[in-house]
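Data availability (excerpt). All sequences and predicted token strings are deposited with the supplementary files. A representative entry, Sec-independent protein translocase protein TatA, is shown inline so that the format can be inspected without opening the archive.
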Amino acid sequence: MGRFGVTEILIILAVVLLLFGGKKIPELMKGLGSGIKEFKNAAKDDQPTAKKEEEVK
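Structure token line:
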């Protein structure tokens, strides 16, 4: 029940295309990509801080 097949994915994509239209999809993907990029950078910057705190204890 938790797995998506090709048919389900195509139906979801068709619904998204109908809701947002063809012109909005690239803008949404660009925003999503930049958000993921910022999240990865923040996670990367946080790791050395956590290691330093462990060394102090």
